[in-house]
């Protein structure tokens, strides 16, 4: 089954997962979320597959987060719009396989996810 990878080329962990998939012969499709940001609807679909709320995928270590968003109490809907407009704030990589998804960290979890 094809694995979709929500990817940011500037992220070493995201690049490491792509390298792992390639080295292990896993068929995958890269979706560069920086060049092609996800819509609010696409984010909702990913969150449903992750079985998580939007708060689970916010990168709180990102400089943009601390400068612009950290001190505000946004709703889930507001965060969906913020992440759609600022994809660097999304945790990555996110791997999607059929109806399930996972954050691609740590790498050991990726191996388990691929084998299931």
From TrEMBL:
Q: What is this protein called?
A: Arsenate reductase (Glutaredoxin)
Q: Which family does it belong to?
A: Belongs to the ArsC family.
* Cited InterPro entries: Arsenate_reductase-like, Thioredoxin-like_sf
Superkingdom in the source lineage: Bacteria
List, alphabetically, the Pfam families matched. ArsC
